[in-house]
Structures are given as C-alpha cells and as structure tokens.
Amino acid sequence: MATVVAPKDFSPVEDAETIKKACLGLGWGTDEKAIISVLGNRNSFQRKLIRLAYEEIYHEDLIHQLQSEITGDFERAMCHWTLEPADRDAVLANAALRKSKPDYRVIVEIACVGSPEDLLAVKRAYRFRYKHSLEEDVALHTKGDIRKVLVALVSAYRYDGHEIDEDVAISEAGLLHDDIYGKAFNHDELVRVLSTRSKAQLNATFNRYRDIHGKSITKGLLGDPVDEYLGALRTAVRCLRDPKEVLRRAIHKEDTDEDALSRVIVTRAEKDLKEIKELYLKRNNISLDQAVAADTDGDYKEFLLTLLGNETS
Amino acid sequence: MATVVAPKDFSPVEDAETIKKACLGLGWGTDEKAIISVLGNRNSFQRKLIRLAYEEIYHEDLIHQLQSEITGDFERAMCHWTLEPADRDAVLANAALRKSKPDYRVIVEIACVGSPEDLLAVKRAYRFRYKHSLEEDVALHTKGDIRKVLVALVSAYRYDGHEIDEDVAISEAGLLHDDIYGKAFNHDELVRVLSTRSKAQLNATFNRYRDIHGKSITKGLLGDPVDEYLGALRTAVRCLRDPKEVLRRAIHKEDTDEDALSRVIVTRAEKDLKEIKELYLKRNNISLDQAVAADTDGDYKEFLLTLLGNETS
Question: Does the keyword Transit peptide apply (chains A, B) (predicted)?
Fold first, then answer.
C-alpha cells in the first residue's frame, strides 16, 4: 500500500499558483515547506495535472522551475517525484548507467521489480527521452558477463499469467543447480531462464531448487562480495522473488546511500512503501521514519518524511 | 502499398450471412468461391468486424467454422488471413517453432521486418494465446548459437527514430568486421549490435561497413549453406536493411515452399505486396501472379490471386 497522503479534492490551478508563489518567495527566498506541502501530498495523476496547469499558466516547465529554485538531494528527490513514474525510471536508469561505475542494482530493480508492462513503459519513456533504446545504452555502459545479464533482463517481456509448468520448474531447478554447482555462472542457461520465464514460473523453479537441493538459489550465488556479476544475479533473483525485501536491503546500509534511500522512497511511496516500512521495522528494530530522520536533515528530511506518510509540519 | 482490393462500403452482417450460406452450401458442398470473394476482398478491420458479426449471429467462431469446411493449403491461408495481424504472426511463429526442424527464417522475419511496436504486438498476442512469452518458446525449441541470436532478436525493443550516430556506425562497422574476419560468428558483440540498435543506426553501420571494407556485411557472413546460424544472421541483416528483398527471396525458390509463399502473400497483402511484386518481376523476369498461377491450383490458387489484387472470377 501507498504511504503518500493525497486529498480527494484538489485544484491543479490553485496548486500551481501556490508553487509559483513559493518559488517567488516574497523576499525571503524560496518557500520549500510550501512546495513540500503541495507536491508531497499529491498522487501521480494529480502531479501530472499540476505540471500541465503550471505549463499552461506560466509557460514554464514545473521541473525546470524546481531545478532553479532548490538544490542538492532535496532537488533531486523532488524532481524525480514530480516526473511520471515510467519517465522517472528512465531518468534513474540513465543516471545509474552514466556513473563512472554503473549502478547495476538500479537496472536490475527496474527490470525485475515491476510488471512486464511497467518495464515496457520505462523502455518507451527511455527511447522517447534519450533517442536510444534502454538495451543499447545498457550495452554501451557495461561489458563482459554483467552486460550479458543486464541486457537480457531489460530486454525481457515476460508472460505475466499465473499458470506454471511443474515439469519445467523441476528441470530448470536442476539446470540452474548444474550451472551454479559447476560454477559456470556466466552460463547462458542461467541468464536465459532468469530473463525469459514468468515470475510465477521462476518462483516455482526457485522453490523446487530449495526443495531438491536443501538451500536457496541465492546461497548458491554467493561469492566474492565485490563480484558485480554475481551481485546482479542475486539481486535479480531477489527482485523476481521478493521485491520488497530487495528494496528494504537497498535502504539498509551502514553508510546511508542517499541515491538508494531517495529512489526507494520516491518510487514506492505510491505503491508498496507501507509494506516495505513494516518489513524494515521487523528486520531492523527501528522504523524507517526514525532511520530517515536520523540520517537526513532540512527540507530533504521533511520531504522524505512527508512521502513516508507523516503529516507535514 | 497493399494489393488487396477492399470496398469502401460493406456490411459485416451481410458478409457474415454470405459466408454462412456458403458454408451450408445448399446441397452442393461448401461454396469456396463465395468465401474467397468476401474475405479475400476485405481489409483487416473489415474482417475483424465480420468475425465479430459472425460470432454474434451464429454463436460460433468464424475461424472454427472455416476450419471445418475447407482443407489443406487453402484452409491454412484463409484462416491465417482471417486472424488479426499480430495474432497471425503469433500463430506463424508458434507453428515455425513446433516444426521438427524449427524454421528460423519465420522468427527472424517477425522479429526484424516490422516496427518495434509491431513486434511488441506479436509478443503480446503470443503471451495471450500460448501462456508463454515468445522468448521462452524460442529458447525451448532451439539451442546453441542459433538460440542466442533468435532470443536476442525477438527480445529487441529498438529505438525507432531516424537519428543516427556516425561515430557509432564507424566503430561498430569495425567491430562487426573484426568479428566476421576473425570468424568469431558467435561473438556476443555481433548479436548485441544486431539486436539492440535501431534500424536507422544499423543501416548507417552496414553502409560504413561496405565503404570501409569494400563489400557488404552479408558477403562476410557467407559460409556453409546449411549452417543455420549464419543463415539467421544473414536473414536478420537483410530484414533490417531491405525487408522486401527478403520476402521476395522467401517466395523465390526452385521448389515452391508453400509455407513461405502463403505467409508472404497473407502477411504483406495489406502492406507492401505491391512493391514486392514489382521487385519480383524485376529480378525474376516473371510476374508473381504468373508464378503463383503456375505453382498452385484450385481454390488456393484463386485465393492467393485475389489477395494479389486480381479480380475474383
């Protein structure tokens, strides 16, 4: 369930005017709290209408306006939040690829957490925005085995029904075990199974794997912790099997990774952030709200807490 | 341009009734000519409405009805024709995969001839009809290098804009040449470039290849004529560069391949069959109509000639 609190009644024009006024700031600089109070409490459809109203009234893109008024982590999180979800994922994917060391976790999350239609919408948005396919940019910025698995995962257009084939689950559980046991991690079969089978089928296969071999497939994929290829395979298995746990892990780190924290909160606040919060509390013995409050500050902190469902002060 | 001749005015209900009457046959068996005269002269939207009207009036699927009334090549061609285009390609792909020796050409054609959106529509139809993704069924029915290239090609969701990057064209022309010259045909780079780049970009790359190396890339991919993997790569390059020529080749064989003949006429009659006919005449010194008339007979012949734009007798 969502954590973001959005009113049923709202006026896109009034909201656009409130934001403009907050940006003008009446001599005291930008009124960030007003911006948070409006945009942090609107769902994606409402934000879309506000952005359209803003463009219509002020002939200016709301996101460009925000970029010129606010800065740092707060700016990045607010701009990502204001984008439409598929377009936001396209921007996140591109940013992850352009890092000096591409962040493969973001690519795996985008490829494996959502539905096949979600991924397709991201690929469409990516093509529109960057004039390349997501696949070719993934290929451009990576190489070797990690490239093979990432290109296959973003290329997937899986079946999304619930039917499963038990025989396939058993035979492919054996096949995955052969690959892993033989440490043939870059074997094409492993990549092929992970990137073409439906989530329901993969879950059946992972379950059979555990039944037959007495341990989970992710255990078999443990290895050198800095081996990105194995990391990508483990992340993919987890995203396909239990995305909420992956997202909880992404935000639970010794050193808070601002990118991951902001990404998970912004992308999940309208989806399943409530369940991720529950899982976080259960596993970490501290609520996500407390963790965010301790690790962040200022407008950025207030914005994230608003998306987490806290009343704006 | 299309060859099929469809009237502007038509009545789905009248057409459905005409077909039903033709199937009942009034004691003389099915009236195939009447069926050809109706369905062979309707475009895909009109056929869809006729199928809906037929279902509504007779509580029976038109295609099931046709299957129980007609037989052989004529039945297959007529049923394919009556299906919606994306669904038809899904059926053709499945049939090609289920052959004792899968027909990779059909898969490559479906993956590379149409637009990225066309391929996506086929993949959607395939999932709906067979409860598997096209990717997983391609992987199931093939193996080795041919599997690698076919899975990658059907997974593609290319950028479809016209922008090209000349630097990429030059560097990838070199990369393809290195792969081919080194006879590393199963090299991942070759498959990656062919399956992720936009058609415009690939055409630029193929042109640079020819400029730099003095011969076409398909020449470099010549080899053992029974090597399916090389054949698939050549077909893919041709489909991406000049689909009409591939389709012309598909129907020009010493022994007429009924599958290919029927497939090309049925799938292209509403698209570019006119240009394919022109190309056929230019290269083969005989018109496609004459070739079809000489190689086929009966209702099947009459149906194909109708789709080729000949008046129904």
Answer: no
Please return the burial class of A7, using the count of CB atoms within 10 Å of its CB with bins 0-12, 13-18 and 19+: exposed
Burial label for B297, CB within 10 Å (0-12, 13-18, 19+), is exposed
What is the C-alpha separation between A74 and A297, in angstroms, rounded? Answer: 10
Count of C-beta atoms within a 10 Å radius of residue B225: 7
**Contact call for residues A33 and A73 (beta carbons, < 8 A):** no
Domains, chain A, ranges and CATH? 12-70 (1.10.220.10), 85-153 (1.10.220.10), 166-241 (1.10.220.10), 243-307 (1.10.220.10)
B contact residues 135-164, partner A, Cβ 8 Å cutoff: 135-136, 139, 147-148, 151-152, 155-161, 163
List b or e across B31-56, with b for residues whose CB sees 16 or more CB atoms inside 10 angstroms.
bbbbbbbbbbbbebebbebbbebbee
H or E element, residue B150: helix B144-155
d(CA A125, CA A137): 14
Would you state the pLDDT for residue B43? Answer: 95
Q: Which residues of B touch A132 (CB under 8 A)?
A: 159, 198
List CB contacts (< 8 A) between A204 and chain B.
none
- Model-level ipTM above the cut of 0.85: no
What single-letter DSSP state applies at residue B310?
P
Q: Identify whether the C-beta of residue B172 lies closer than 8 Å to the C-beta of residue B193.
A: yes
> Rounded to a whole number, what is the distance in Å from the CA of A123 to chain B's nearest CA?
8
Residue B27 has what pLDDT? 66
> What token pair was written down for B249?
């080749």
B45, B11 Cβ separation under 8 angstroms? no
Give the pair of three-digit tokens for residue B291.
Answer: 């070739």
Cβ-contact A133, B196 below 8 angstroms: yes
The rounded distance, in Å, linking the Cα atoms of B275 and B112 is 18
Round to whole Å and give the CA distance between A292 and A236: 26
pLDDT (0 to 100) of residue B128: 95
User: What proportions of chain B, in percent to the nearest 5, are helix, strand and coil?
Assistant: 70, 0, 30
Whether A117 and chain B come into contact, CB under 8 Å, resolves to: no
A295 is in an annotated binding site: yes
In this predicted structure, what is the pLDDT of residue A147?
Answer: 93
Dump pLDDT digits (tens) for B234-282: 999 999 999 988 888 888 765 557 788 999 999 999 999 999 999 999 9
Chain A partners within 8 Å of B159 (Cβ): 127, 131-133, 136
Query: Distance from CA of residue A195 to its chain's centroid?
Result: 18
Model confidence pLDDT, tens digit, residues A135-159: 999 999 999 889 999 999 999 899 9
Residue A192 has its nearest CB partner, among B151, B188, B195, at: B151
What's the token pair of residue B237?
């390059």
Measured distance CA(A86)–CA(A121) in Å, rounded: 6
Q: How does DSSP classify residue A27? A: G
Residues sharing a CB contact under 8 Å with residue A76, sequence separation 6 or more, in sequence order: A262
The whole-model pTM stands at: 0.86
DSSP assigned state of B40: T
